[in-house]
Specification:
- By secondary structure, the protein is an all-alpha fold.
- It has a domain at about 55-85.
- It has helices spanning about 10-45, 50-100.
- Helix 1 runs antiparallel to helix 2.
- The longest helix has about 50 residues, at about 50-100.
- The protein is rod-shaped, with a radius of gyration of 23 Å.
C-alpha cells in the first residue's frame, strides 16, 4: 500500500489570508464611503421628520450596516482561521522534519 501524501501550500494560503483581510478592510471602507456620500441626501429627507423617504433611508441604513458588519466579520474570521491553520501546518512540518532528520 502506497503512503498517503498531504501537501499544503503555505505561500498560497498566506496570500489567500491576506486577500481575505484586505477585502474585509476594503468592504468596510466602501460602506463607510457610501454612508458619507448619502448623508446629504438623507439629511434632506429627514429635515421635517415626517418624510417616508427619510424613515426608509434610516431603516435601510440600519440593515446595511448590520449585514455588512456580519459579512466583514465573517470574512475577517475566515482570513484569521486560514492564517492560524497555515501557522499550524508550518509548525507540524517543522516538527516532522526535525524528528525525521534528528
Amino acid at each position: 500500500m502506497a503512503a498517503e501524501t498531504i501537501t499544503y501550500n503555505t505561500a498560497a494560503a498566506d496570500n489567500i489570508a491576506a486577500e481575505l483581510l484586505s477585502t474585509a478592510t476594503a468592504l468596510n471602507g466602501t460602506i463607510e464611503q457610501l454612508l458619507q456620500d448619502l448623508a446629504p441626501l438623507k439629511q434632506i429627507w429627514l429635515q421635517d421628520g415626517t418624510s417616508q423617504a427619510g424613515q426608509a433611508a434610516l431603516a435601510a441604513q440600519t440593515k446595511l450596516q448590520s449585514a455588512s458588519q456580519d459579512i466583514i466579520s465573517l470574512i475577517t474570521s475566515f482570513g484569521k482561521t486560514v492564517n492560524s491553520n497555515t501557522d499550524l501546518a508550518r509548525a507540524t512540518d517543522h516538527g516532522l522534519a526535525t524528528n525525521l532528520f534528528a
